[in-house]
Structure formats: C-alpha cells, structure tokens
Amino acid sequence: MKQGFRQCMAWLHTWAGLIPGWILFAVFLTGTAAYWRGEITAWSRPEMRMTDNGPEAAAMAIRELQRIAPDSPSWFIGLPTESDPLLRLLWRAPGERRFRDSVLDPTTGRVAEGGETRGGEFFYRFHFELHMQPIWGRWVVGICAMAMLVAIISGVITHRRIFADFFTFRPGKAAHRSWLDAHNVLAVLSLPYHLMITYTGLLTLMVMYMPWGMQAAYGNDQRAFFAEALGFSSPERPARRPGELTDIAPLVAEAIRRWPEAGVRRISVSNPGDANAGIVLGRGDRHDLAIRRQELVFAGTTGELRAATGNSRPAAMTVGVGYGLHFARFEMPFLHFLFFLSGLAGTAMVGTGLVMWVAKRLPKKNETRHFGIRLVEMLNMGTVFGLPMAMFGFFWANRLLPAVMEQRAQWEIKVFFAIWAVTYLHAAFRPGRRGWAEQAVVIAALCLLLPVVNALTTRFNLGHTLMAGDWLMAGMDIGFLCFGLFFAWAARKLWRLPAPVAKPARAGRLRESEA
Amino acid sequence: MALLALGLAYPGFLLLALAMERHHRDLLGGVPLPPRRRLYTASGWLLLGLSLLPCAALWGWTFGVVAWLGVLAVAATTVAMLSTYHPRLALIAAPLVPVPGVVAWFGFH
C-alpha cells in the first residue's frame, strides 16, 4: 500500500492534514479574523473610540487607575492607535493573579460602563489557545501547527505537476478533481504565505515548545533570558513605603520626542503607590516590520530615566521580523489586506482539503457509507460552515445582548459556542449537499443582516459612516456584506445541483480507503 | 503604486501561462513554437521581476518584498480564475491592467 517515496508522502499528507485539520481550520479562520483584532474590538464598542494617544490621554488613564485601583501592584495601559482605537486599562487587584481589564470612556474619562465584550481579543486568543486552559490550548495548537508544516512539505512533494498545473482549475469535472484543483491552486499560489505563517506561528511560542536552549544557558532564570534577549525589563521590588507617582505627561512627551513616528503604545506602572514605583513606556510597533520591545524605564516617583532597553542584534531582529510577519501589526492598509486575503486562502486551503477527503470517498450507487466517512463529513460541515456561522453570531450577540448585563462578555462567548454546537448537530442530521446548502443560507442571512442590525442598534449605519469617512465601521459593514454575498452564492450553487443519493446506513460496509 | 505592481504581475503570469501548452490551447488555440514559447517565458519572468520595483519604491525593501509576494499571489490567482471562467477577458485584460498603474505612478511623480 505504501510503496515509493511519493505514495508515502501522499499518505502522510492525507493523514497529517485530516486529523488536525478541523483544529487547523479554526486556527486559520480565527487567526485571519485576528488580523482585524483592534478593528473588531472597536466595532464592538464604537462609542469608546478615541484618537488622542499622547501625554493627555496617558494622564487621563493614570488618573482613572488611581481612582479605581490605587492599591494594585501593577497597571497596564494600552494607548490607542489608528487600527486599535480604544484606550485599554488593565490592573491587578491586590492578591489576585489575573488582570482585570476595561476600556476608558473618552467622554467621561472613567472606565466604560456596560457593553463589556471581548471583541477581537476573543478570536485572537482562540487562535492559539482554543478557549482552553492557555497551557493546554497552546500545546494543542502547537502540535497541529507542526502537523501543518509536515502537511505543507509532504503536499509539495506529493503534488506531481506543481508547475504544469500552476494555473489549472477545472470546475465541473468529477467532484474530487475540482476540489483537488481548488486545493492545489489555493495552496501553491500562496505557498510562501502558508509556509511563513505556519513557521512564524511556531516561532511565537518557541520558548514554550523548545525551552532547552534557554534552560541550558540561563537555568531556571527565565526572566534573565527575556530581559537579555527580548528587552523585557523587570520591575523593582516594592519599598513598602508610600510614595507619590510623578506626572506621566512629561515622560510620555519625552518618549514621543525620541520616537516621533512610532509613539508610545504601552505603559506599565509597577507598585504605583510605593516609593519604589516604576514606569515603563513601550514603543509603538505599527511602523516597523520587526516587532521587538523597546522601552524607556523611569523611576516612578522622580520621573528620572533609568534605562532604555531594546536589542537590535541580528538574532533579536530575526525573531522580531518573524513576529512581525506573523502578527502583521503594521498599519499599511494594502499590505494588511493582502495578509487578510492570504489568511482566507489558507483557511480555504484547509477547508478544501477536508472536503476533498470526503469527495474522494463518495459512495458509488447502491453503496452504503462507512461510519467514519459520515463522521468526517459531519465534522467538516460543522467546522467549515459552522465556525463562520458562530463567528458571525458572535457579532450579532454583541449588538443584541443588553448593554448592561452580568457577565456580558461571557454571554457573547456562550452564544458563539451554542451556535457552533448546533451546527454539528445539524450536520449529523442533515448530511450531504442539502445540509451544506442550509448552513450556507443561514450564514448568508446572518452576514447580510449584520449591517441592518448595526444600523438599528447604533448610530453608525453604513450611509452615515461612508459619508463621515469612518472607514473602520464602514469597512466592517462592507466586509459583512461581501461575506454574505459569497455565502449566498455558495448556497445557490449547493442548492441547485442534485443531492447525491446517499442513504445513511446503519451498518456501513468497510471500504478500503486509499490515500 | 500598488496598482502598478499588480498591473505588471498579472500580464507576467499570463505570459507564463501562455508558455504552457494546455493554457495556450485554451486561451489562443494551438501550440506555441519553441522560440515563441521562450519569448513568453522570458518576458513573463521579466514582468514579474519588474513588479518588485514599485513595491520596493512604495514600501521600502523590507515591506516591499513581503508585499511583492502578496501581489504575486493575487495576480496568479486572478490569472487562474479568469482564464478558467473568462478566457477572452483574461487575454484582453493583460495589456490593459498596467495602464491605471502607470498613469497613477507618473501622475503622482
């Protein structure tokens, strides 16, 4: 069965692609959505957007944190940028490990009331943690990403006519032939992206997946490694004497003088009420390809500059470029959009691969389907169509849940998972083409109606945002409409062609599966 | 201008497609003779190479190369899709797509 190198690779490609395929699809799709992480979060609370990210905004944030969390050992402030225009506040309550977070309301200068949401953060975290315990989720995603790398390389080897079939797409041939063409075109034409994104994805968590180099050189002192290699600064211990925090505005002004283009993105304050308080200003990362920490460390009470960190040696820059390519945080609309398109191509590549596995094994006439094939089809439908449905449902939940609600952000996530679970159930009861068509109709309706729901629940309707040049809100609406049209087209195509006669069998006959 | 990069990469890939028997048959009919095929290949690669220049000019070499790879993917996908569904349009578009890019490029300078 497995003779020859190429057959062997084909077998590897089939199974290294299928087994982690559903998780990979989810990772790709939520990761692609996370390219708009800031925009999605801003769409979720459009009233809270602000443009000021200078000394004034920083001072306002500090005042609010002094009011709501004076005893906290640690504050973080995320200053707004064009693509992520919310001012974020994070603080740790004394004795707690987790950070609480909120958004500053620019009109009141206080934390925003109501409308809590995870927004784009949810997709971003899901992309590498799958909403599991972070450590478990990251390992699962890491293992799947390694399988992805195996699938990409074995796929290139398997693909016999990679150059001859470079532009070949033959719709309307035998089902599995068309799917194979689509899979090949999506894979080959964006191959540099697929390789890059998988590899750099592993790179972002390399210290966790392969800690041995770091352990050999630094023993158990991880902090020393991070400080030296990545320019992390660690806070001083508290003096346990009260101290007054200096005015932050001149410090931010000084940082902006040093970084006129990049500006300040992150502010962290350690032990704010203590004599040993520290203030760290982190440089913005929206204008460089290489993401690396560059920080100014100030003494919190005197405002004296203690250190300027940042490592621009070749190794650090290499890692920084890897991070930069993966996160694509740069604010360059055209390039950013290309990354988004490539992400969609990657998602579609995984999706077509999954669908092809079933298409290749469609039962011939009067043949019953094996249980395994029906299981795979159910998982395919609930993942490939169910996940986008759940994601658009998440946006609906954001607009329709009451603004003031206990655990509101959690409810949005519950809606997401509830819809996703229902799609698997639906897939189990409605296998085959008809089931796919029905899910496509629902997704199309969800997408096409989102701008309507948005117009009814906020004052940011598409007409208004287009006239005002509010491209963030208008772009989200236009994006929803584009997805809606795509799924409507898919639904029409799926509905029209005759459903294949496939009677679900109770006792499926074993079919010899060939890779 | 990003348009110019796309406008160069698209005909570049179309020429590479024309250098292949199957696509030549679908698009123009018949099989190209070897010298003509070499011409297609060489000019195709030349255009792809040239499309790097506007990317680099617009975004610098760091971002330019990254953007160029994205531009190539978009252009190649467009060639594959158009020559499947609208082969005539695929051919007609090839000499036209660089025009807006060139106009925009020289209009801006």
UniProtKB/TrEMBL annotation, chain A:
<feature type="transmembrane region" description="Helical">
    <location>
        <begin position="378"/>
        <end position="397"/>
    </location>
</feature>
<feature type="transmembrane region" description="Helical">
    <location>
        <begin position="185"/>
        <end position="210"/>
    </location>
</feature>
<feature type="transmembrane region" description="Helical">
    <location>
        <begin position="12"/>
        <end position="36"/>
    </location>
</feature>
<protein>
    <submittedName>
        <fullName>PepSY domain-containing protein</fullName>
    </submittedName>
</protein>
<dbReference type="InterPro" id="IPR005625">
    <property type="entry name" value="PepSY-ass_TM"/>
</dbReference>
<keyword id="KW-0812">Transmembrane</keyword>
<feature type="transmembrane region" description="Helical">
    <location>
        <begin position="334"/>
        <end position="358"/>
    </location>
</feature>
<feature type="transmembrane region" description="Helical">
    <location>
        <begin position="472"/>
        <end position="491"/>
    </location>
</feature>
<feature type="transmembrane region" description="Helical">
    <location>
        <begin position="409"/>
        <end position="429"/>
    </location>
</feature>
<dbReference type="Pfam" id="PF03929">
    <property type="entry name" value="PepSY_TM"/>
</dbReference>
<keyword id="KW-1133">Transmembrane helix</keyword>
<feature type="transmembrane region" description="Helical">
    <location>
        <begin position="136"/>
        <end position="157"/>
    </location>
</feature>
<keyword id="KW-0472">Membrane</keyword>
<feature type="transmembrane region" description="Helical">
    <location>
        <begin position="441"/>
        <end position="460"/>
    </location>
</feature>
From TrEMBL, chain B:
<dbReference type="Pfam" id="PF11804">
    <property type="entry name" value="DUF3325"/>
</dbReference>
<protein>
    <submittedName>
        <fullName>DUF3325 domain-containing protein</fullName>
    </submittedName>
</protein>
<keyword id="KW-0812">Transmembrane</keyword>
<feature type="transmembrane region" description="Helical">
    <location>
        <begin position="43"/>
        <end position="76"/>
    </location>
</feature>
<dbReference type="InterPro" id="IPR021762">
    <property type="entry name" value="DUF3325"/>
</dbReference>
<keyword id="KW-0472">Membrane</keyword>
<keyword id="KW-1133">Transmembrane helix</keyword>
<feature type="transmembrane region" description="Helical">
    <location>
        <begin position="88"/>
        <end position="108"/>
    </location>
</feature>
